[in-house]
Amino acid sequence: MFTKNAGTIRGLRGLSGRGETTMSTFMASQKNAPQSAWHVIDAENQVLGRIATKAARLLQGKHKPIYTPFIDTGDHVVVVNAAKVKLTGRKEDQKIYRQHSGYEGGLREERARLVRARRPEKLVEDAVHGMLPKTKMGEAMYRKLKVYAGPDHPHAAQKPSKLEVA
C-alpha cells in the first residue's frame, strides 16, 4: 500500500501528483471543538460598526485557527456601556429602526436617538445581529451575545478577558 519514493511516503491520501505530500485541512467537529471563552468589550466612546464587527467575528469564531463554517466554534461576548456608543455622521437623527407586526399598517419606525433613549442595548444588538448568518446556527451565535447599557455585568464568574477595539 505504501511505498517509499524519493523521500516521500506515497499512499492513498496526501498525494499531489508531483511526488510531494500535501497536508489535509483541519475540520473541527462537535467532539473536538474547544470550550468557548468569554470576552468583554467596553463600548464607551467607540464607533458602533467597529464594535459590531469585532463582536460578530468573536461570536462566529473566525479569530481561531480551528474555524469551521458549519460548526459553532465561537466565543461568548459581553458588551458594556452600550448607552455610550458613538454613531458617526448624522446617523443619530437619520438612521431608522423598523419593526413590523405582520398586520396591515403594522410598520413602526424609530430614529436612533429615540431608540438610544428607550433601549440603548438595541443599537448594538441589531448591528451585531445583522452581521451574523441568517440560519439556526446564526441564532445560536446571537444567543452568546450579552449587551448591557451600563458598566456592570453579571458574568464575572466566567472570568471574561477584556478586549480593546481599535
User: What is the percent of helical residues?
Assistant: 10-25%
Structural class: alpha/beta
Number of helices: 5
- Any guess at the CATH architecture of one domain? Alpha-Beta Complex
Give the ordered list of helices and strands: EEEHEHEEHHHEE
Mean pLDDT: 90
In CATH terms, what is the fold-level topology of one domain? Ribosomal Protein L13p, Chain: A
Rough outline? globular
Instruction: Please give the number of β-strands.
Output: 8
Question: Which band does the percent of strand residues land in?
Answer: 15-25%
Between the first and last Cα atoms, what is the distance in angstroms?
Answer: 54 Å
Would you identify the regions where 5 or more consecutive residues have pLDDT less than 50?
none
**Biggest sheet, spatial arrangement of strands:** 7-4-3-8
Radius of gyration in whole Å, from Cα?
Answer: 22 Å
Largest sheet: 4 strands, parallel
Class of one domain, according to the CATH hierarchy?
Answer: Alpha Beta
CATH homologous superfamily placement of one domain: Ribosomal protein L13
Oligomeric state of this protein: single chain
Write the layout of secondary structure elements.
Elements (H helix, E strand, L loop, with lengths): L2 E3 L2 E3 L27 E5 L5 H13 L15 E5 L10 H4 L1 E5 L6 E5 H7 L2 H9 L6 H7 L2 E3 L13 E3 L3
Parallel strand pairs: 3-4, 3-8, 4-7
Antiparallel strand pairs: 1-2, 5-6
Explain this structure.
Helix content is 24%, strand content 19%. The protein is of the alpha/beta class. Helix 1 (48-60) links the parallel strand 3 (38-42) and strand 4. Helix 1 crosses helix 4. The radius of gyration is 22 Å and the shape is globular. 20% of the residues are buried. The model has no long low-confidence stretch (mean pLDDT 90).
